[in-house]
From TrEMBL:
It comes from the Bacteria. One of its GO terms (biological process) is DNA recombination. One of its GO terms (molecular function) is double-stranded DNA endonuclease activity. Belongs to the Rpn/YhgA-like nuclease family. InterPro entries: Rpn/YhgA-like_nuclease, RpnA, Transposase_31. Pfam families: Transposase_31 (PF04754). It comes from Salmonella enterica (Salmonella choleraesuis). This is Rpn family recombination-promoting nuclease/putative transposase. Residues 8-209 form the Transposase (putative) YhgA-like domain.
Length: 313
C-alpha cells in the first residue's frame, strides 16, 4: 500500500526535525557508524531537493535525503534517512531502491562516478526490537547465492573475443553471435562458409531467419559486395535461396531508386549552376557596355575572358 509523503503525524514531525541542517548533523554524528562518519565532511551537509527523488518513488518516500562531500574532497556521499513506525519485511530492498535512485540522479547531474549512498532507518514502532534484517541480500531465498552474485562483477558475454570456431559450437545462438561479432566488417565474404553451415543445421526458426536477413540488409545493403555475399550463401544453402535472392532483388531495386534519385538531384544542381553562369554573363556584359574595366569585370564575376567572348558569339 502506497503512503503519501506525510501520511502520518509520525512522518510529519520527523521531517520537521530532520530537514534542519544542525539537527541532521547531530543525528549523523551520533548514529552513523564510525567507519563511515570519519569519511564525511559534515560542514558540507546539504538537503537534496524533492526533484532529486525519482517520481515513481516519491509516493513511498516519506523522509529525508542529505548530500555531503567526503573529507578528502574527492567524492560525494548521500544519506537517506527513512522513518518507520511499522516494521516492513521488505524495508531493506526499499532502501536499496532509494539508494540506486539517488545514484542515478547523481549521474544525471553530470558526475562521472557513483556516489556512496548510506541508507539509514529510524524506527520507533510498537514491536521491539526491529524484527527484520536491514541487509537486502537476506530477502532472497538463497542469501549466500545472492551475495555471490551481487558482490562480484556481473557475467559478461563479450562475443568480440570469442573465436569463430568456438562460436560455431554454440548451437541455436551461434548464428546470431557470429553475425553480430562481424557485423561492422566492411566485407562479409569471409563469413560465407560458416554462415552456410549454420543455416544448413536448421537451428533457427523462420522469424529468426527473417529478422537476421533483414538485419544484414539494413547494416550492409549499401556496401558494394553485399549482393555477392548473399548470392554465395544462397548457392550453398538451396533451401534458403528464394528468401536470400529476395534480398538481392531488394538491393537492386534500392540501387535503381538511388540512381534515379541521384540523377534528378544532379540535374537540379546542373540547372542551378547553369542559371548562375548565365546571370554572371549577363552582369558581365552590362558592366562592359557601361565602360567598366575588363579585368575588374572578370574579377567581380569570376568568369574567364574566354567565357565572356564565347557567349557573345
Amino acid at each position: 500500500m502506497k503512503k503519501s509523503p506525510t501520511s502520518t503525524p509520525h512522518d510529519a514531525v520527523f521531517k520537521t526535525f530532520l530537514r534542519h541542517p544542525d539537527t541532521a548533523r547531530d543525528f549523523l554524528n551520533i548514529h552513523l557508524p564510525h567507519s563511515l562518519r570519519i569519511r564525511c565532511d559534515m560542514t558540507t551537509l546539504k538537503l537534496a531537493p524533492d526533484s532529486f527523488i525519482e517520481k515513481n518513488l516519491r509516493a513511498f518516500y516519506s523522509d529525508v535525503l542529505w548530500s555531503l562531500k567526503t573529507c578528502e574532497g574527492d567524492g560525494y556521499i548521500y544519506v537517506v534517512i527513512e522513518h518507520q513506525s511499522t516494521p516492513d519485511a521488505h524495508m531493506a530492498f526499499r532502501l536499496m531502491r532509494y539508494a540506486t535512485a539517488a545514484m542515478q540522479r547523481h549521474l544525471d547531474a553530470g558526475h562521472k562516478t557513483l556516489p556512496l549512498v548510506i541508507p539509514m532507518l529510524f524506527y520507533h514502532g510498537a514491536k521491539s526490537p526491529y524484527p527484520f534484517s536491514l541487509c537486502w541480500l537476506d530477502e532472497f531465498d538463497d542469501p549466500a547465492l545472492a551475495r555471490q552474485l551481487y558482490a562480484t562483477a556481473f557475467p559478461l558475454v563479450d562475443i568480440t573475443v570469442v573465436p569463430d570456431n568456438e562460436i560455431m559450437q554454440h548451437r541455436r545462438i551461434a548464428m546470431l553471435e557470429l553475425v553480430q561479432k562481424h557485423i561492422r566488417q566492411r566485407d562479409l565474404m569471409g563469413l560465407v562458409e560458416r554462415l552456410a553451415v549454420l543455416l544448413i543445421t536448421g537451428n533457427a526458426n523462420d522469424s529468426q531467419l527473417k529478422a537476421l536477413f533483414n538485419y544484414l540488409l539494413i547494416q550492409h545493403g549499401s556496401t558494394p559486395r553485399f549482393g555477392k555475399f548473399i548470392r554465395e550463401v544462397a548457392r550453398r544453402v538451396p533451401q534458403h535461396k528464394e528468401r536470400l535472392m529476395t534480398i538481392v532483388d531488394r538491393i537492386r531495386e534500392s540501387g535503381r531508386r538511388k540512381g534515379k534519385r541521384e540523377g534528378v538531384q544532379q540535374g537540379i544542381q546542373q540547372g542551378i549552376h547553369q542559371g548562375k553562369q548565365e546571370e554572371a554573363l549577363r552582369i558581365a556584359h552590362t558592366m562592359l557596355e557601361q565602360g567598366i574595366d575588363r579585368q575588374m569585370v572578370l574579377m567581380i564575376t569570376g568568369l574567364s575572358d574566354e567565357e565572356i567572348k564565347a557567349k557573345r558569339h
